[in-house]
Specification:
Blueprint (H helix, E strand, L loop, with lengths): L1 H13 L1 H47 L1 H44 L4 E2 L8 H10 L7 E5 L6 H14 L7 H7 L13 E5 L3
Antiparallel strand pairs: 1-2, 2-3
């Protein structure tokens, strides 16, 4: 057996590619050993630095000034945590109020009801009746948006009125409630009064 191993060894040694591979392996092993030695030195240095830091920390623990600062930092940390807890609680309250506001907005019909706040005397009412058609006191004020049409606005309100079980309003009722309104000349920001259905 030893004879055949020797023959194989000498046969391999005679092959130049095998010799080059062996030389490469030797170089790699030497490089790894050198790297390992450098790592061991670095670990020793880090261990020494860590020991120095630990000794300094132990010395500072016994220093009353450091203890006072440490206590102040702890108290400040507790106050910050308390403020953060309150902030989170406030955020919950704000969200709850915001959700209520959203629900209220969703429940409110489109537009704002127009209610007469003054009661002019009988003479003033007679003069108005002679000068212009009667304008209803109850209804909704709509602010014209880009690409709005009078018929589209009426359709929007009529759909809402239908949901509420009410009759719709006609174009003529809207025109009567808005003297001087020219449907073909709507302007963004213009206000249109949509009367409550009769």
């Amino acid at each position: 057996m030893a004879l055949s191993a020797g023959l194989v060894g000498s046969a391999l040694a005679a092959d130049p590619t095998v010799t080059a591979d062996i030389d490469q392996l030797k170089a790699d092993v030497e490089r790894l050993m050198a790297t390992n030695l450098e790592q061991q030195k670095r670990i020793s240095e880090l261990t020494r630095q860590l020991q120095t830091v630990r000794e300094e920390a132990n010395r500072q623990k016994s220093d009353p000034a450091v203890a006072t600062v440490s206590d102040q930092v702890r108290k400040l940390s507790e106050k910050i945590e308390e403020v953060d807890r309150k902030r989170l609680g406030d955020a919950g309250v704000v969200k709850e109020q915001f959700d209520k506001l959203v629900d209220l907005i969703k429940a409110t019909p489109v537009g704002t009801p127009r209610v007469s706040h003054s009661d002019p005397g009988p003479d003033t009412q007679k003069q108005k009746a002679r000068l212009a058609p009667a304008v209803p006191d109850k209804g909704y004020e709509y602010v014209v948006q880009s690409n709005d049409t009078v018929s589209g606005i009426i359709g929007l309100y009529n759909a809402e009125f239908k949901k509420q079980g009410k009759k719709g309003v006609s174009l003529q009722q809207v025109l009567d409630a808005n003297p001087g309104l020219v449907p073909a000349k709507l302007k963004v920001g213009q206000k249109i009064f949509v009367p409550m259905p009769q």
